[in-house]
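Q&A log
Question type: sequence-to-structure
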Amino acid sequence: MRIGLNSSSNNTCVVVLTADAEFESSARAIFGASSAIELVVVPGRLADVGDTLNVSAATVVVVDLDAGRAEEMAALARLTARIGQWPPVIAITQVFDETVARTLMQMRVADFLVKPIAGIDLVRACASVGKGTGRGNDLTEAQIYTFLPAVGGAGVTTLAIQTAMLLLNSGGPRANPSTCLLDLEFQHGAVADYLDLEPRLNLAEIEPRPDRLDRQLLEVMLSYHASGLAVVAAPNRPAEMRTFDLDVVTRLLDLVSANFEYVVFDMPRTWFSWTDRVLLGSNKLYIVSESTVPGLRHAKQLVSAIKERLGEGPNPQVIVNRFEQRMFSSGLRLNDVRQALGESFVSAIPNDYALVREAIDRGVPLDEVKPGNRITTELKKLVLPAANAKAGHGKPVPLLKKLKLSAAR
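Response status: OK
Response body:
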């Protein structure tokens, strides 16, 4: 009897071979979150079960092996020779050096990762190698839009909400893409208040046992706006001073991004243990400033700090919110903003305080108050080109939608 998959399902199938209980648990948490992913875990060492591993229906094969053992590497060589070009194989190792890298390349392994591995690193690797021309369905990643304030009161929440609404409605004639807005300001968040929703996220309930967080529990903690936008937000706790465990927050973000096509983050200004991972995983990272000299100075400093801290990962771009340029005024002009921020400047959002205030008081998006308003028009120029490019002009909705939360190294 051959070990592996006997299913005739058309779902994306990820086969994971491992003798590591911790890695197995992580894989189940990562891939088990999506109903579109069929996960098959084969327990055991590659040297013992590799020759009987059935990968005929697999989209991606993930092999956890000890690269320091000759019999393990020999078994991997036999496996790759047997299955050929498809499905692609991802090797997971604890030992890694130049010799191992050369050997893996000679075996034509599609990719390799070194433990410890952040969940989304594994997903990103699967998404990349699974885009081949084999029998499997395409694996693609969720698109992440992150809004980070340079100063307090810059209007991040309003821009994040409006961006999420634009992405939600970016599908054109086809069904609206699934979109989720996460308020990562767990202590003083305002997203639920702005949309007149009941915040349902209870991290204190999850923290003792993060493994309990699955799709069913997430559904209980989701709030839905009348537009169809999914929102993850925690109740305000103004008198509490605390942080949440890195693994708890990462598990939440991984799970959300596994189930939505677009994810928008409303970030707190404070830097937490999980902030690096969110920024590294963002497809679009926007720093939001106000149009004042101190605001621009803080934005420029934040851009430099992110690039220095996270290297070549994210590409922070600055949005100057509530910008006004009046004739015969001595205030900042657009050329001043461009000169101060340089290449990091991406957009100046017009000021329309009355419109924003009414939308907040009514709990509705800006377009419902005033269709075609200046704020939405400017955001469309910024957000929709990327969304339309990702949509692929009518290609099927991706089966694997994961957040690129790479671990900072």
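Response note: Residues 3-129 form a domain with the Rossmann fold fold (CATH 3.40.50.2300).
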